Amino acid sequence: MADSFAPDVGGIERQVEALARHQTSEGHDVTVITAVADEMDIDLDVRRAAPGRWLTVAFPWRNHKMVAEVLDRGDIDVVHAHFTVISPLASYVTKAASRRGIPVGATVHSLWWQVTIATRVSTLPFGWGRMWAAWSGVSSVAAGRVSRTLRKVSEVSVVPNLVEIGWWRPSEPIRETGTGEIRLVLVGRLKKRKHVDEFLDALAAARARISPDIAVRVDVVGAGPRHDDLQRQITRLGLADWVTLLGHRTPEQIRTLLHESDLFVASSRQESFGIAALEARAAGLPVLGYRGNGLVDFIADGTEGVLVADGPEMTEALVSLFSQPDELTRLRKTTTTFAPSVDVDAAMSSVYGLYRRARAMHRLPVLP
């Protein structure tokens, strides 16, 4: 269950749908409960909250009948609750399932440590003590923040997101780095928390320090409320000949773009996991991003990409990579030769491990 789901667009929405589809393909009976009332044509069993999203946020128990219809069927082996910063319906369902003796595995998709107070306040009506669950985070960093927030929880495991590594892998030889222009790509919603503006500042600072003969192209994929602000910033910084905001692209178009690029930039400092970065890594690109977030679970600094601490280090990394294309070539030898360490098999093994822990809390038999 997840407060947000399709037709909403975002990381958690994609992951809950991907998990539901994968488990369905394995023969499991999956029902999705969501706070999103908007209907869409989707071949999954989805139970939606009553219309009025903000009413559900404020009073999630208004959907008690719908939740009870699912939980009281008598054939529920485990509830998988997906949490973000504020997830009132997930909290309500977790409590309702706990009260019925149904095992709950909970996965947190955000970095709670930065919003601990908001998270705790949002769950006051439910009480952590009554939300009996086996807890996890989508990365080691996210899991550590859950432990800091839920200090009485003894174990928080890592349940990474599902990315079909093979689908993103190039089937033909990719372009050689350093032939013509150096091509960078960013993929993500154009929101403040993605820090694209900070990357543009670092890019402008790097441009001022490299030879004017070095040609660079930066493609930014994604739509969102910051589009116009970012376009004005690009013009103001004199980056219009380097940076293009491409808007929305299909997964197939993004895959092609990745195969035609040299480096992926994960501009957000607050990635709990980094789905787009893992997709780029699977497509054979090294990743430039920040230490201290979810990227550390699948990007080895200096081998599969470059991880930096802040904006000035981002500038230094860009100057180095632009000035030394051989370094980009070295990184790409690794990323095109070896698959990422996080794949679907590893993710699903972690999911079912979470379910075993949840059932063990109730002394129930382990599922096959």
Automatic annotation (TrEMBL):
<dbReference type="Pfam" id="PF13439">
    <property type="entry name" value="Glyco_transf_4"/>
</dbReference>
<dbReference type="Pfam" id="PF00534">
    <property type="entry name" value="Glycos_transf_1"/>
</dbReference>
<keyword id="KW-0328">Glycosyltransferase</keyword>
<keyword id="KW-0808">Transferase</keyword>
<dbReference type="InterPro" id="IPR001296">
    <property type="entry name" value="Glyco_trans_1"/>
</dbReference>
<feature type="domain" description="Glycosyl transferase family 1">
    <location>
        <begin position="179"/>
        <end position="334"/>
    </location>
</feature>
<feature type="domain" description="Glycosyltransferase subfamily 4-like N-terminal">
    <location>
        <begin position="9"/>
        <end position="161"/>
    </location>
</feature>
<protein>
    <submittedName>
        <fullName>Glycosyltransferase family 4 protein</fullName>
        <ecNumber>2.4.-.-</ecNumber>
    </submittedName>
</protein>
<dbReference type="InterPro" id="IPR028098">
    <property type="entry name" value="Glyco_trans_4-like_N"/>
</dbReference>
<dbReference type="GO" id="GO:0016757">
    <property type="term" value="F:glycosyltransferase activity"/>
</dbReference>
<dbReference type="InterPro" id="IPR050194">
    <property type="entry name" value="Glycosyltransferase_grp1"/>
</dbReference>
